[in-house]
Amino acid sequence: MKKSIVLATAVASILTSGVAAAELSANAAIASNYIWRGVTQTTDQAAGQGGIDWGFGPGFYVGTWVSNVNFDNSDDGYEMDVYAGFAGEVGSFGYDVGVLTYQYPITPEFNFTEVYLSGTFSMLTLGIASTVDAASGNEGGVYDTGDMYINGSIDFTAGKSDVSLYAGSYAFDNDGAAGVGEVDYVHYGASIGKDGFSFAVDKNDIEGGSADNVRFTAMY
Predict the structure, then answer these.
(1) Long-range contacts from 207-210, C-beta under 8 angstroms, 24+ separation
(2) Contacts for 24-28: CB closer than 8 Å, 24+ residues apart
(3) Do residues 43 and 71 make contact, with C-beta atoms less than 8 angstroms apart?
(4) Could you write out the three-class secondary structure of 143-204?
(5) Given this model, what pLDDT does residue 177 score?
(6) pTM (two decimals)
(7) Contacts of 208 (CB under 8 A, 6+ apart)
Protein backbone atom coordinates (compact mmCIF):
# COMPACT_ATOMS: atom_id res chain seq x y z
CA MET A 1 0.00 0.00 0.00
CA LYS A 2 2.70 2.49 1.00
CA LYS A 3 4.75 1.93 -2.15
CA SER A 4 1.78 2.93 -4.26
CA ILE A 5 1.31 6.10 -2.22
CA VAL A 6 5.00 7.00 -2.46
CA LEU A 7 5.18 6.39 -6.20
CA ALA A 8 1.98 8.32 -6.83
CA THR A 9 3.39 11.25 -4.84
CA ALA A 10 6.60 11.21 -6.86
CA VAL A 11 4.68 11.12 -10.13
CA ALA A 12 2.37 13.94 -9.03
CA SER A 13 5.40 16.07 -8.24
CA ILE A 14 6.81 15.40 -11.70
CA LEU A 15 3.55 16.19 -13.46
CA THR A 16 3.30 19.57 -11.76
CA SER A 17 6.95 20.51 -12.23
CA GLY A 18 6.97 20.39 -16.03
CA VAL A 19 10.42 21.23 -17.34
CA ALA A 20 11.61 22.66 -14.05
CA ALA A 21 15.03 21.79 -12.65
CA ALA A 22 15.65 18.39 -11.04
CA GLU A 23 13.79 17.92 -7.78
CA LEU A 24 14.83 15.65 -4.90
CA SER A 25 12.31 14.56 -2.28
CA ALA A 26 12.27 12.12 0.62
CA ASN A 27 9.58 10.29 2.55
CA ALA A 28 9.33 8.25 5.75
CA ALA A 29 6.53 6.47 7.58
CA ILE A 30 5.73 4.16 10.45
CA ALA A 31 2.91 1.66 9.80
CA SER A 32 1.16 -0.82 12.07
CA ASN A 33 1.35 -3.36 9.23
CA TYR A 34 2.94 -3.52 5.79
CA ILE A 35 0.19 -4.47 3.33
CA TRP A 36 1.25 -4.99 -0.29
CA ARG A 37 -1.40 -5.92 -2.85
CA GLY A 38 -3.72 -7.00 -0.08
CA VAL A 39 -1.23 -9.24 1.72
CA THR A 40 0.79 -8.57 4.88
CA GLN A 41 4.55 -8.51 4.32
CA THR A 42 5.40 -8.40 8.03
CA THR A 43 3.16 -11.15 9.48
CA ASP A 44 0.93 -8.38 10.84
CA GLN A 45 3.78 -6.60 12.61
CA ALA A 46 4.79 -2.95 12.41
CA ALA A 47 7.02 -1.54 9.67
CA GLY A 48 9.40 1.37 9.31
CA GLN A 49 9.59 2.66 5.75
CA GLY A 50 11.24 5.41 3.76
CA GLY A 51 12.45 6.44 0.36
CA ILE A 52 14.05 9.04 -1.88
CA ASP A 53 12.79 10.23 -5.28
CA TRP A 54 14.47 12.31 -7.94
CA GLY A 55 12.45 13.90 -10.72
CA PHE A 56 14.26 15.46 -13.67
CA GLY A 57 13.56 16.72 -17.16
CA PRO A 58 10.00 16.70 -18.53
CA GLY A 59 8.59 13.70 -16.68
CA PHE A 60 11.47 11.36 -15.88
CA TYR A 61 11.98 10.04 -12.36
CA VAL A 62 14.04 7.52 -10.40
CA GLY A 63 13.71 6.46 -6.79
CA THR A 64 14.30 3.92 -4.08
CA TRP A 65 12.20 2.75 -1.14
CA VAL A 66 12.97 0.50 1.85
CA SER A 67 10.89 -1.40 4.42
CA ASN A 68 11.47 -4.20 6.89
CA VAL A 69 9.75 -7.49 5.97
CA ASN A 70 8.90 -10.71 7.80
CA PHE A 71 7.08 -13.30 5.72
CA ASP A 72 6.95 -16.28 8.08
CA ASN A 73 8.17 -15.13 11.50
CA SER A 74 11.77 -15.56 10.36
CA ASP A 75 14.58 -13.07 9.84
CA ASP A 76 13.80 -11.94 6.30
CA GLY A 77 15.58 -8.62 6.78
CA TYR A 78 14.34 -5.85 4.55
CA GLU A 79 13.00 -5.03 1.10
CA MET A 80 14.64 -2.43 -1.11
CA ASP A 81 12.85 -1.24 -4.23
CA VAL A 82 14.52 0.68 -7.04
CA TYR A 83 12.42 2.17 -9.83
CA ALA A 84 12.59 4.47 -12.82
CA GLY A 85 9.96 5.73 -15.19
CA PHE A 86 8.31 8.46 -17.17
CA ALA A 87 5.05 10.22 -16.33
CA GLY A 88 3.11 12.77 -18.32
CA GLU A 89 -0.27 14.09 -19.37
CA VAL A 90 -2.21 14.22 -22.61
CA GLY A 91 -5.01 16.68 -22.03
CA SER A 92 -6.81 15.50 -18.88
CA PHE A 93 -5.36 11.98 -19.11
CA GLY A 94 -2.29 11.17 -17.03
CA TYR A 95 0.01 8.23 -17.66
CA ASP A 96 2.98 6.56 -15.99
CA VAL A 97 5.27 3.83 -17.35
CA GLY A 98 8.36 2.36 -15.75
CA VAL A 99 10.30 -0.53 -14.28
CA LEU A 100 10.54 -1.53 -10.62
CA THR A 101 12.82 -4.11 -9.06
CA TYR A 102 12.10 -5.66 -5.64
CA GLN A 103 15.33 -6.63 -3.90
CA TYR A 104 15.64 -8.62 -0.65
CA PRO A 105 19.34 -8.54 0.35
CA ILE A 106 18.90 -11.07 3.20
CA THR A 107 16.70 -13.42 1.15
CA PRO A 108 17.74 -12.80 -2.50
CA GLU A 109 15.78 -15.82 -3.68
CA PHE A 110 12.69 -13.59 -3.45
CA ASN A 111 14.02 -10.91 -5.84
CA PHE A 112 11.94 -10.00 -8.89
CA THR A 113 11.44 -7.15 -11.37
CA GLU A 114 8.31 -5.72 -12.99
CA VAL A 115 7.42 -3.32 -15.75
CA TYR A 116 4.32 -1.23 -15.10
CA LEU A 117 1.87 1.04 -16.87
CA SER A 118 -0.96 3.10 -15.44
CA GLY A 119 -3.41 5.71 -16.63
CA THR A 120 -5.46 8.26 -14.70
CA PHE A 121 -8.55 10.13 -15.79
CA SER A 122 -10.38 12.26 -13.24
CA MET A 123 -10.79 10.13 -10.09
CA LEU A 124 -10.09 6.78 -11.78
CA THR A 125 -6.68 5.11 -12.09
CA LEU A 126 -6.08 1.76 -13.81
CA GLY A 127 -2.75 -0.04 -13.86
CA ILE A 128 -1.03 -3.23 -14.94
CA ALA A 129 2.31 -4.73 -13.92
CA SER A 130 4.11 -7.77 -15.34
CA THR A 131 7.02 -9.70 -13.85
CA VAL A 132 9.86 -9.72 -16.40
CA ASP A 133 12.68 -11.13 -14.30
CA ALA A 134 12.84 -13.40 -11.25
CA ALA A 135 15.63 -14.80 -9.10
CA SER A 136 16.56 -18.44 -9.62
CA GLY A 137 14.73 -19.29 -6.40
CA ASN A 138 11.46 -18.12 -7.97
CA GLU A 139 11.63 -20.16 -11.17
CA GLY A 140 8.64 -22.47 -11.34
CA GLY A 141 7.09 -20.90 -8.24
CA VAL A 142 5.26 -17.77 -7.17
CA TYR A 143 6.69 -14.46 -8.47
CA ASP A 144 8.13 -16.04 -11.61
CA THR A 145 8.35 -14.29 -14.99
CA GLY A 146 4.96 -13.91 -16.64
CA ASP A 147 3.01 -13.04 -13.48
CA MET A 148 0.45 -10.29 -14.05
CA TYR A 149 -1.09 -7.81 -11.62
CA ILE A 150 -4.05 -5.58 -12.59
CA ASN A 151 -5.38 -2.91 -10.27
CA GLY A 152 -7.69 0.06 -10.12
CA SER A 153 -8.56 2.83 -7.70
CA ILE A 154 -10.98 5.70 -7.27
CA ASP A 155 -9.37 8.60 -5.43
CA PHE A 156 -11.16 11.71 -4.25
CA THR A 157 -11.32 14.33 -1.52
CA ALA A 158 -14.02 14.27 1.14
CA GLY A 159 -13.91 17.47 3.15
CA LYS A 160 -10.27 17.80 4.17
CA SER A 161 -9.53 14.08 3.84
CA ASP A 162 -8.14 12.07 0.94
CA VAL A 163 -10.10 8.89 0.23
CA SER A 164 -9.12 5.92 -1.93
CA LEU A 165 -11.16 2.86 -2.90
CA TYR A 166 -9.02 0.21 -4.60
CA ALA A 167 -8.92 -3.38 -5.82
CA GLY A 168 -6.49 -5.67 -7.58
CA SER A 169 -6.17 -9.09 -9.20
CA TYR A 170 -2.92 -11.09 -9.11
CA ALA A 171 -2.55 -13.83 -11.75
CA PHE A 172 0.54 -16.02 -11.30
CA ASP A 173 2.03 -17.77 -14.32
CA ASN A 174 2.53 -21.00 -12.33
CA ASP A 175 -0.88 -21.02 -10.68
CA GLY A 176 -2.08 -24.62 -10.30
CA ALA A 177 1.32 -26.15 -11.00
CA ALA A 178 2.63 -29.02 -8.90
CA GLY A 179 4.20 -27.70 -5.72
CA VAL A 180 2.62 -24.28 -6.19
CA GLY A 181 -1.12 -24.88 -5.93
CA GLU A 182 -3.87 -22.35 -6.50
CA VAL A 183 -2.27 -19.00 -5.73
CA ASP A 184 -4.19 -16.49 -7.89
CA TYR A 185 -6.18 -14.04 -5.77
CA VAL A 186 -8.05 -10.76 -5.72
CA HIS A 187 -8.06 -8.10 -3.03
CA TYR A 188 -9.85 -4.86 -2.27
CA GLY A 189 -9.75 -2.12 0.32
CA ALA A 190 -10.17 1.51 1.24
CA SER A 191 -8.07 4.18 2.89
CA ILE A 192 -8.58 7.65 4.27
CA GLY A 193 -5.83 10.12 5.04
CA LYS A 194 -5.35 13.61 6.45
CA ASP A 195 -2.31 15.65 7.47
CA GLY A 196 0.12 12.76 6.97
CA PHE A 197 -1.95 10.18 8.87
CA SER A 198 -3.80 7.43 7.04
CA PHE A 199 -6.03 4.53 8.00
CA ALA A 200 -6.78 1.59 5.71
CA VAL A 201 -8.78 -1.62 5.66
CA ASP A 202 -7.83 -4.50 3.35
CA LYS A 203 -9.28 -7.91 2.44
CA ASN A 204 -8.25 -10.68 0.03
CA ASP A 205 -9.69 -14.05 -0.97
CA ILE A 206 -6.61 -16.22 -0.29
CA GLU A 207 -7.64 -19.54 1.25
CA GLY A 208 -5.84 -21.09 4.18
CA GLY A 209 -5.13 -19.96 7.71
CA SER A 210 -5.49 -16.27 8.49
CA ALA A 211 -4.31 -15.00 5.09
CA ASP A 212 -7.76 -13.68 4.15
CA ASN A 213 -8.50 -11.94 7.45
CA VAL A 214 -9.69 -8.34 7.27
CA ARG A 215 -6.74 -6.16 8.20
CA PHE A 216 -6.70 -2.60 9.52
CA THR A 217 -3.59 -0.47 9.13
CA ALA A 218 -2.66 2.90 10.61
CA MET A 219 0.24 4.85 9.14
CA TYR A 220 1.97 8.14 9.78
Answers:
(1) 207/182
(2) 24/52, 24/53, 24/54, 25/52, 25/53, 25/54, 25/55, 26/50, 26/51, 26/52, 26/53, 27/51, 27/52, 27/53
(3) yes
(4) CCCCCEEEEEEEEEEECCEEEEEEEEEEECCCCCCCCCCCCCEEEEEEEEEECCEEEEEEEE
(5) 93
(6) 0.90
(7) none
